[in-house]
Amino acid sequence: MRILRAGDYKTMPWKNGGGETTEVLASPPGASLNDFDWRVSMATVAADGPFSSFPGIDRTLSILDGAGMTLSIGDGAPVTLETTSPPLTFAADAPTTAWLVDGPIRDLNVMSRRGRVAHAVERQKAPAVLPPRGTVRLLLALGELTIAIADQRHDLGPLDCILLEADDDRTLAVEGAGEFTLVTFAPAAIG
């Protein structure tokens, strides 16, 4: 189990150079934008424009704050994401363009290498009890929360995370009145 503090995340340029991304965590440790198995990051989007392309990657996007943005993904109909929208999963190698609804937004971006790792992203409200799933679990606090695990308690501030590896079979009790995002990673199904 690891606690990740928002102040310790690293910021780097977007792959297409159009802005900056704040990396929460990537696997394996030290992986670049070209060779990660999975990656969790946040970005402030301040202008309309194209998304970076990530060949062979699946992406899930959700809005953390701001009025939202409309996405055009491949040949599909435009989709508008707001803070109340469920996370949207799509191929990160599909041509994607974003238009801001009303000013800058901050998003949460979860990516995994297609065929190697599968991910899921769920937005939930505390209090909640999260049983083990046999997957890597990353809980991102969206407000002030306390996590009880076994006989330990950990306070999380906004955008802090707790990470549990797949073999950690402990149950998490999430206390407080805030929301959080639960991200899980598991080996992709074969076949």
How would you describe this structure to a colleague?
By secondary structure, the chain is mainly beta. The chain has two domains: 8-113, Jelly Rolls; 117-187, Jelly Rolls. Helices cover 0% and strands 55% of the residues. The protein has a six-stranded antiparallel β-sheet, with no helix packed on it. Strands 1-17-14-19-12 form a five-stranded antiparallel β-sheet, with no helix packed on it. Strand 7 (69-73) and strand 8 form a beta hairpin. The two termini are 31 Å apart. The mean pLDDT is 94.
Task: Please tag this protein with its features.
Jelly Rolls, mainly beta, six-stranded antiparallel sheet, 191 residues, 0% helix
Give a summary of the structure in a few sentences:
By secondary structure, the chain is mainly beta. The chain has strands at 2-4, 10-13, 20-27, 38-45, 49-50, 57-65, 69-73, 79-81, 88-91, 96-100, 105-113, 117-125, 128-130, 136-141, 145-149, 152-156, 161-164, 172-175, 179-187. The chain is globular and about 50 Å long.
Instruction: Label the CATH architecture of the largest domain.
Output: Sandwich
Q: Could you name the CATH topology of the largest domain?
A: Jelly Rolls
Work out the strand percent. Answer: over 45%
Order of helices and strands: EEEEEEEEEEEEEEEEEEE
For CATH, the homologous superfamily of the largest domain is named as Jelly Rolls
**Under the CATH scheme, which class of the largest domain?**
Mainly Beta
- Give a quick account of the main beta sheet: strands, pairing sense, barrel closure: 6 strands, antiparallel
- Provide the gyration radius in Å: 16 Å
The count of domains is: 2
The N- and C-terminal alpha carbons lie at a distance of: 31 Å
Strand arrangement within the widest β-sheet reads 2-3-4-11-6-9
State the secondary-structure class: mainly beta
Number of strands: 19
Q: How many helices in DSSP terms? A: 0
Q: Overall 3D geometry?
A: globular
The average pLDDT is: 94
Low-confidence stretches: none
Helix proportion of residues, in percent? under 10%
Protein name: Environmental stress-induced protein Ves
InterPro entries: RmlC-like_jellyroll (IPR014710), RmlC_Cupin_sf (IPR011051), Uncharacterised_HutD/Ves (IPR010282)
